[in-house]
Design brief:
The complex is a heterodimer.
Chain A (H helix, E strand, L loop, with lengths): L1 H27 L6 H12 L2 H5 L1 H7 L6 H26 L3 H8 L4 H30 L22 H5 L2 H10 L14 H18 L3 H27 L4 H9 L9 H14 L6 H7 L7 H50 L11 H11 L1 H7 L8 H6 L5 H13 L4 H33 L1 H6 L2 H16 L7 H12 L1 H18 L2 H12 L5 H29 L3 E6 L4 E6 L2 H15 L1 H23 L1
Antiparallel strand pairs in A: 1-2
Helix pairs in contact in A: 2-11, 2-14, 2-15, 2-20, 4-15, 5-6, 5-13, 5-14, 5-15, 5-26, 6-7, 7-10, 7-20, 7-22, 7-23, 7-24, 7-27, 7-28, 9-19, 10-20, 10-22, 11-15, 11-20, 12-15, 14-20, 15-19, 16-17, 19-20, 20-22, 23-27, 24-26, 24-27
Chain B lengths: L4 H19 L9 E4 L8 E6 L5 E2 L2 H10 L1 H7 L26 H44 L6 E2 L2 E2 H6 L6 H5 L8
Antiparallel strand pairs in B: 1-2, 2-3, 4-5
Classes of the chains: A mainly alpha, B mainly alpha.
Chain lengths: 616, 184
């Protein structure tokens, strides 16, 4: 009995020393001023451009209102558990991603490094979007808006060739913003205007992360709340626009047959997964600055609910804008047809209207068959559904479709400024999370933190990213952007989160994790969370992973959309071999970190054991 | 407004006016302008005759040039524009967009850039000053300790400060051990 008591005393002393060391770390670790800053930081990070430009597209493609069913199911099954897991890990370990996974198991330091590498790739190309948003924002202070009308050609007789073939907004995006080259191989020169905007974007990010959580904590008040103000303004404006109802009806009529399409469920799962920003290490970094007693379960639920609600809200706005734009184009098309017929048949002004157009067309075809036949190729069949059907996602939606809708509103400069400020807030909010994911492990590392102050580390990271980001400002930069956007993070993230979930549940031990959460926050996780963590979420991620792999393998050569200036539209081309090599390198460099990290730790342990044994 | 005979009269007057201004002759009368084939669409052909040269028509190129010169006067007489009053074969030159000497976007860019750089410089300097103040404070505290003026919290007869900073140190073995918890 005496021995047992003695051992217990020793263990208690050990525990006291551990907690003393933790308090020692706590002394120096910065904290959020209040839990609200943490929630706002997570919301600002999770609510990003994907909510605005990817979710409406998915909604449209996969069954309108019916898409909400798989979306909400995936949110409950996959989104909330994984978010809770990451926040809990960060709050418990109180370190950035590298340190946190090293504590869980030293063989898992590769997971943390893979997270940092993936975050690094993301921050490289994501800030280019902010640069474009700045460009459009600065150009919104003109009357008329520069994308409202085509520029004239050199002898001022008519509009530019390229602009005539396509629309003025597309011309402004492809020619005046990107100055895009016809293919990936033709790299072209760095566009100095874009380079300036990129530098400004990185300076803004540096300003926000300069002082760590002090500055980030204040900035996220704005980046989280301002987009909602703008979305509300746009909602009111959008719903009162002429033709907005068409878009809304079109979007929300559920097409239930899409539910049987497996792609619907996979897209819902993918969207939830990437929208929350899991696996980058940002959530772990944010949570590591929390008080240990913080109720991260409630915060996880709040953040994921707000993220999904924002997606739905943004898609309402987007679809009323779509409806307005489609109706506007449809009516212009009808007016053009009417004008053509009036001029050709010398009819009185006002005799042809949109309502009697079809009857009059039949009448004209009957009375003047030859002239009508010659006119037929020019008479386009205007269809509202065709206009609404043009589903666009990504940069096309944000910059082309929205600017086209904005140019037709009254006081378009105001709406343009509001919209691009909102895009900037969303983009910068996500960038704060990304850079936090890179900087937190760096500042946690004792070696680097003693030699360089926080400001210098942030500055160096921003500077390196800015220099590399100049690639995306070249003429072929948008093609490289698409490569990074599609391939740099998707597969790696799935693998990282899979390893994370398995590590916490099976290597660290679910019971141990549960006990940690209990000591930390004072409440045990529900049976629901445990079931999700142990079974449902890993299974889901594995199936997503398998789907993506088979998809890539089955499609064979990867292709991309190149802008053809002569035709005025996008054409499909194959990637050259060096681009494929870059893609492979991107995926490999992040995924290989995990096994390499485990291998290196194994080797290091074996060397240490040998050294110890030889010394002894 | 409806197109009637009076409007046609005005049109003839405007064309005559254009011809007079262009060729500086004062002989063109309204009766020299002839309209034909007026349709409901309000489209018609017109010719200008030359009364001095025995009622032959003035060549089309001259008429075109005259109208081109006075296009905006003709437009405003009818409260129309280049888009709504169309002369076939006379394509209008499109007005070039107004371009200020410095592009507007550069001005806005410059303003925002200056603000951001000012913010960065301010924060960096504030950080450096804060660090200098903290260093000064900690050296001051060390000096005061040596003079024995700071109240020390004592534990086990050893002052806590020295425990933390100098003499005592955290048991590195326990911390450095990779496996903090004995595996079950």
């Amino acid at each position: 009995a005496g021995l047992a008591e003695h051992l217990q005393e020793r263990r208690q002393d050990g525990a006291a020393e551990v907690s003393a060391r933790e308090q020692d770390m706590e002394k120096s670790r910065p904290l959020w001023d209040n839990p609200l800053q943490f929630v706002f930081a997570c919301i600002s990070y999770a609510v990003g451009l994907g909510n605005v430009w990817r979710f409406p597209y998915l909604c449209q493609m996969y069954g309108g209102g019916g898409f909400l069913i798989p979306y909400i199911i995936m949110l409950i099954v996959e989104g909330m558990p994984l978010l809770y897991l990451e926040l809990a890990v960060g709050q418990r370990m109180r370190q950035g991603s590298i340190g946190a996974w090293k504590i869980i198991s030293p063989y898992l330091c590769g997971v943390g490094i893979a997270s940092v590498v993936v975050s690094f790739f993301l921050s490289m190309y994501y800030n280019v979007i902010n640069a474009w948003a700045f460009w459009y924002l600065f150009h919104s202070f003109q009357n008329p808006l520069p994308w409202a009308a085509c520029p004239l050609n050199s002898n001022r007789t008519e509009y530019e060739e390229e602009c005539k073939k396509t629309s003025s907004t597309q011309y402004f995006w492809y020619r005046q913003t990107l100055n895009i080259s016809p293919s990936l191989e033709a790299s072209g020169a760095v566009q100095w205007e874009q380079a300036l905007c990129l530098t400004l974007a990185w300076l803004v990010v540096y300003l926000c992360i300069l002082r760590g959580t002090e500055s980030t904590g204040k900035v996220v008040y704005f980046t989280a709340s301002l987009p909602y103000c703008v979305l509300i303004i746009y909602l009111i404006r959008g719903l009162t626009l002429h033709g907005a109802v068409n878009g809304l009806i079109y979007m929300f009529t559920p097409k239930m047959e899409q539910l049987s399409n497996p792609k619907t469920w996979i897209s819902a799962a993918t969207q939830i997964f990437f929208s929350l920003g899991l696996g980058f290490g940002s959530l772990i970094a944010f949570a590591s600055y929390n008080e240990p007693s913080n109720n991260c379960e409630r915060h996880a639920i709040i953040v994921s609910l707000i993220n999904s609600a924002t997606s739905i809200f943004a898609s309402i706005v987007t679809f009323s804008i779509y409806g307005f734009k489609a109706t506007f184009n449809y009516e212009s098309c009808i007016n053009k047809v009417i004008l053509l017929l009036l001029n050709a048949f010398d009819l009185e002004e006002g005799s042809l209207t949109a309502d009697n157009l079809s009857e009059m067309k039949d009448y004209l075809m009957a009375t003047h068959p030859q002239e009508y036949a010659t006119l037929l190729p020019q008479l386009k069949n205007c269809s509202l559904e065709a206009e609404l059907d043009t589903a666009v996602q990504g940069t096309g939606l944000a910059f082309i479709v929205y600017s086209e809708a904005i140019k037709n509103m009254e006081v378009s400069q105001l709406y343009s400024v509001l919209y691009f400020v909102m895009l900037l807030m969303l983009g910068i909010g996500s960038m704060l999370g990304n850079t936090a994911a890179i900087l937190t492990p760096l500042t946690d590392n004792k070696v680097i933190a003693t030699h360089l102050p926080k400001e210098a580390i942030s500055g160096i990271v921003c500077f390196i990213n800015c220099i590399i980001g100049l690639i995306f400002t070249m003429e072929a930069g948008n093609y490289w952007f698409d490569i990074f956007n599609d391939y740099a993070v998707t597969l790696s993230l799935l693998l990282i989160v899979l390893v994370e979930t398995i590590a916490v549940c099976y290597i660290y031990g679910l019971r141990r994790f549960e006990k940690d959460l209990h000591t930390m926050t004072g409440r045990k996780p529900n049976w629901y969370w445990k079931v999700m963590w142990a079974f449902a979420s890993p299974l889901l991620i594995i199936s997503l992973f398998i789907f993506y792999l088979t998809d890539y393998i089955l499609t064979g050569t990867l292709q991309y959309q190149a802008w053809d200036a002569t035709q005025g539209q996008l054409v499909t081309k194959d990637y050259p071999s060096y681009a494929l090599a870059v893609i492979g390198l991107l995926v490999a460099s992040s995924t290989m970190c995990i096994p390499l990290g485990a291998l290196l730790t194994l080797i290091r342990k074996r060397l240490k054991r040998e050294r110890v044994s030889t010394v002894a | 407004y409806a197109w009637d005979v009076n409007e046609e009269y005005l049109f003839k007057a405007m064309v005559a006016f254009a011809m007079r201004r262009y060729s500086s002759k004062t002989t063109t009368q309204i009766s020299n302008v002839l309209l034909c084939n007026v349709t409901d669409r309000v489209s018609f052909w017109f010719v200008v005759t030359d009364s001095s040269k025995n009622m032959t028509t003035v060549p089309g190129s001259q008429v075109e040039a005259a109208i081109r010169m006075n296009r905006n006067r003709i437009n405003s007489a009818f409260l129309l524009s280049d888009k709504t009053l169309q002369f076939l074969k006379i394509s209008s030159t499109l007005s070039p967009p107004v371009e200020p000497s410095t592009p507007v976007w550069l001005i806005v860019f410059g303003v925002v850039l200056c603000l951001i750089v000012a913010g960065i410089v301010f924060l960096v300097f504030a950080g450096i000053q804060q660090r200098k103040k903290k260093n000064k404070e900690s050296t001051e505290r060390e000096n005061l300790e040596e003079k024995g003026e700071v109240t020390k919290t004592i534990e086990n007869g050893i002052p806590c400060e020295t425990l933390d900073l100098k003499a005592g140190h955290i048991n590195g073995v326990f911390a450095a051990d990779d496996e903090r918890f004995t595996s079950l």
